[in-house]
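Case 267 in the screening queue. Each case pairs one protein sequence with one candidate compound; here the compound is iron/sulfur cluster. For every case the pipeline is the same: read the inputs, emit a complex structure as tokens, and attach any notable structural observations.

Predict complex for case 267.
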Amino acid sequence: MKRRRLTPEGKAKVRAARLRRLRPGLVEDTMAGLAAMYGHPTWQRVHDPMSELVLTILSQNTADVNAEKAFDALRRRWPSAPGSSTARINRPGWGGAGIGGGPAPDWAAVESVPVAELVDVIRPGGLAPQKAPRIQAALRTVRESRGDYSLEFLGDLPALEALGWLTAIDGVGRKTASVVLLFAFGAPLMPVDRHVERVSKRIGLVPEAVDVDAAHELFLALLEPDQMHEAHVNLITHGRQTCHAQRPACGSCLLAPRCRYVDSRAP
Ligand code: SF4
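Case 267 output:
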């Protein structure tokens, strides 16, 4: 008899069940160890969802601090009416210095300027020739389907439906969409960036061979919805402060007793 192929969600459930069977309590111990080191970060909205989307596109493959410079340059060049944005402070898990207060850019202007002009303005963010058309395409898609540039409606959709809506936009991948939904709405999604991927694979929460999309599915199967924000922020913080790409500080890490990087047979 022909075996039915599992969906990505089905595969994630099988992997999660196997991990719970072979390494019971690993998720709970990891969450507790991270919380002991970095506390319990609480979710609060920092940016409106469109600002979050553009900022996240600007941060692709570059340091967050450069994305901030590019975002600030957008606001200076095409300011919108005062009071039209909530962008003002840093958010947990973000690696930059935080964005100063002020209105969001005028998205209609950003969408309609010649792309070469936009490339010039966002150049401090790096990879401007790729990101400028991506930002304009995202703005155009939202305006054409919604009539304006607001993404607030996504907060009324189930998380995976909202994820599907955003990832249908050219240049918006699962990680970018998950960042927007997690941070703008507190949606139970797990953006898997390089820190989250590295740390979770070293511990053994995620198998080495699993790609980032499958890792995202696996986290949805491993964690409770209300654990997602804390897990994401603390895994990133751990990757930045302790579990460095080169020479992780395992001697001061509370996760070491259960980490497969330290001991390939760790329980
Ligand atoms: S023990 Fe070392 S490798 Fe494992 S999570 Fe901690 S810092 Fe990273």
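Case 267 observations:
- Residues 199, 202-203, 242-243, 248-250, 253, 255-256, 259, 261-262 surround iron/sulfur cluster (CB under 6 Å).
- The chain is about 50% helix and 0% strand.
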